[in-house]
Design goal:
325 residues; 2 domains; mainly alpha
Length: 325
């Protein structure tokens, strides 16, 4: 009798734990939907008086719809926007995300679109206002950290203390598959070739490729500084960023290569600052066009493998938002 009662008690406890885990998981999934609605609503408000910003809404809708398609409990657009009037209005004004999310890949995550919108609204020189706007939006999102569809880190890069600021956010999305897709997608489609080359030196592994070295060393006068989106505290570069970009750090933490906000921020800086680009160019004898092509193919193949795992039939195209909406 004792053994029977003991086993029954253990089984009940295990069942209760499993039920709690499932409830937490369902809450996490629901936070995807509520955060998608919140972010989209905010983006539409921000572009209301300036139609030139609407392509960012177009792009973020596609990125959100894509991520909804590949997570375990798949969300279609009508699951996310379950009010008919809202969804129909979105589809009328932004039809292409609804048409392309199931065959084309986003070039970047949703919070990168949010960042671009906020920078356009506030002006690149107003760093504190930009960080404050992101912090307020982040605090309005649901779920445990890292919150769904958000980024945990923002980075600011400058050629000098008085020059133009270039921003970026981390890829982190709280679940692994989006990160495994968005990092190679950014490498292959949108990051500056030096940032992409640095990331491809390692990605998807932790160890550097034996045949290719595209890492760079930033000039000492360049500012590259990361902050927490949620509280504004400065964050030291991780070991990965030290390896990729020559950033001074005493941190040992190795995040997935390309995940950190430094990658997007430095990509934007290198696209705009020619003199920094010249100083930071890769100088390894392994940095050849042939070796780069092999590394690029390895990243492409890894991306294809992940897409196969999540049963996404990619048509080979990266989504380009319409320039006029």
């Amino acid at each position: 009798m004792y053994n029977f009662v003991h086993v029954l008690f253990c089984n009940c406890t295990q069942a209760e734990r499993e039920q709690r885990r499932r409830e937490q998981y369902m809450k996490s999934l629901e936070s995807f939907r509520t955060n998608a609605v919140e972010i989209t609503s905010k983006m539409r408000d921000w572009c209301e008086d300036n139609p030139e910003r609407k392509p960012l809404v177009d792009e973020i809708l596609h990125s959100i719809f894509f991520l909804g398609k590949i997570i375990n409990c798949r969300f279609a657009p009508n699951d996310i926007f379950n009010v008919d009037e809202v969804r129909e209005n979105l589809e009328k004004n932004y039809p292409r995300p609804f048409q392309c999310y199931w065959t084309q890949l986003p070039k970047r995550g949703p919070f990168s679109c949010v960042l671009d919108m906020v920078v356009q609204l506030k002006g690149q020189a107003n760093e504190e206002e930009i960080k404050q706007s992101l912090r307020e939006l982040y605090s309005s999102l649901k779920g445990k950290e890292p919150k769904r569809l958000s980024s945990s880190t923002i980075c600011v890069s400058q050629k000098s203390k008085t020059s133009e600021r270039h921003y970026g956010v981390s890829v982190s999305n709280s679940v692994p598959n989006p990160r495994k897709i968005l990092i190679p997608a950014s490498c292959l489609s949108t990051w500056h070739e030096y940032v992409a080359g640095a990331v491809m030196t390692y990605y998807p592994e932790v160890e550097r490729k034996s045949y290719f070295d595209g890492t760079i060393t930033l000039p000492p006068h360049v500012r590259c500084q990361a902050f927490s989106v949620s509280n504004g505290e400065e964050k030291r570069p991780c070991r990965s960023c030290g390896n990729l970009f020559g950033l001074n750090t005493d941190e040992n933490m190795v995040w997935p290569y390309g995940n950190c906000a430094e990658a997007e921020s430095l990509s934007n800086l290198l696209k705009r600052e020619e003199d920094v680009r010249m100083e930071a160019r890769p100088n390894s004898p392994l940095y050849t066009e042939g070796n780069r092509n092999i590394a690029r193919q390895s990243v492409y193949d890894e991306l294809r493998n992940v897409l196969k795992e999540v049963k996404f039939e990619w048509d080979g195209n990266f989504y380009n938002p319409v320039t006029t909406v």
